[in-house]
Design goal:
InterPro entries: Aldolase_TIM, Elp3/MiaA/NifB-like_rSAM, Radical_SAM_PqqE_MftC-like, rSAM, rSAM_sf. The protein is α/β, with parallel strands linked by helices. It contains 11 helices and 15 strands. It has one domain: Aldolase class I (TIM Barrel), CATH 3.20.20.70. The N and C termini lie close together (6 Å).
Length: 340
């Protein structure tokens, strides 16, 4: 038997999504990295350490997720992980495409990394490689197997779009066979490459995001099947009924999205624009002036998330009288399913 719960926002925990570089060996068609807005530099270890220290007062309740680009391309990732542990960060995760550069699994210990989290966007080689690049399926599968065999807690991320929705059900036996601990189902955001109408993924279908009906019919069902194996499954809530209260994580949670150019966002949907509410200057975290994402967080609209309506309104629907049929939840609001 499985149990589903909505993971509420909490000011008692902090999530730091730390992009230590934007360089990557792959060219995923839905990549959200925008070099113009995020920078193209690779942070030196000294800067990584200083920026981690900026959150030191919260570190015992903070989760740091090292991201890229591909974070394992950073030659000093293992030292960054150890620094986070020295600063007493509550948990450390590495998001990876599976290529595991610089022999990273031999440079850190399972007790130093809470999760290596792998991205796979197709149950078949053909689908995944269409989205992420030739050879990436085999590399990712091999990386997962190596991670599990060396005793690391291992999770898997599957980003759902119209292009690969039909293969999500096929992930159920694969997830079990790979021996992963957590499964994350993500919804594709219309930002970065996926916001470019001339991008191959956009040209492959008239609308990248799945409909409300498709999401509610397929995602919870697949999540429950995976959870029956004892695997924790997390996915965005996405849609709220009109009477449900909307909460913005920018107001009621403690999340930070850090990029190599020093920008720090509180909302991932704002990352394609110079709307960051914080930035690093001389390794000190300072607030930016108006207008920033913080000003948008305060707006209250019937459709729920303001940024969703601004950048990806295609997932909204209205009645004949012009009122919204439903709200779109904050993208940070999650559902979690686990076995009792």
């Amino acid at each position: 038997m499985t149990t589903k719960k909505t993971v509420s926002f909490s000011k008692n925990s902090t999530n730091i999504f730390f992009h230590i570089l934007t360089r990557c060996n792959l060219r995923c068609q839905h990549c959200y990295i925008n070099p113009v807005q995020h920078g193209e530099n690779t942070l030196p270890l000294s800067t990584i350490a200083a920026w981690l220290e900026a959150f030191a007062e919260k570190s015992d309740r903070a989760n740091v997720i090292f991201l890229g680009g591909e974070p394992t391309l950073h030659p000093e990732l293992s030292h960054a992980i150890k620094k986070a542990r020295q600063l007493n960060y509550g948990s450390v995760t590495v998001d990876t495409n599976g290529y595991l550069f610089h022999d990273i699994l031999s440079k850190v210990k399972p007790e130093e990394v809470d999760y290596f989290s792998f991205s796979l966007d197709g149950a078949t080689r053909e689908m995944n490689d269409k989205i992420r690049g030739e050879g990436s399926y085999d590399k990712c599968i091999a990386g997962i197997r190596e991670s599990v065999s060396k005793g690391f807690a291992t999770s898997l991320i599957y980003t759902v779009s119209k292009v690969n929705l039909h293969e999500l059900e096929m992930m159920v036996p694969l997830v079990k066979e790979l021996g992963i601990s957590r499964f994350f189902i993500q919804v594709i955001g219309i930002r970065g490459k996926s916001a470019d109408p001339s991008a191959p993924l956009q040209e492959a279908c008239d609308k990248l995001q799945v409909s409300r009906e498709e999401w509610l019919d397929i995602i919870p069902n697949v999540a429950e099947k995976v959870a029956e194996f004892g695997i924790i499954v997390t996915y965005p809530k996405v849609f709220l009924d009109p009477e449900e209260a909307f909460e913005c994580a920018g107001l009621v949670a403690d999340n930070y999205f850090i990029f190599p150019n020093g920008r720090v966002y509180r909302c991932p949907l704002c990352e394609d624009f110079p709307l960051h509410s914080l930035r690093f200057e001389d390794n000190q975290l300072v607030r930016t002036g108006k207008i920033s994402e913080s000003d948008l967080f305060e707006l209250d609209i019937p459709e729920g998330c303001v940024m969703n309506k601004l950048i990806q309104p295609e997932n909204l629907s209205y009645k004949n009288d012009g009122t919204a049929e439903y709200k779109v939840a904050c993208c940070m609001l999650k559902e979690e399913i686990l076995q009792n």
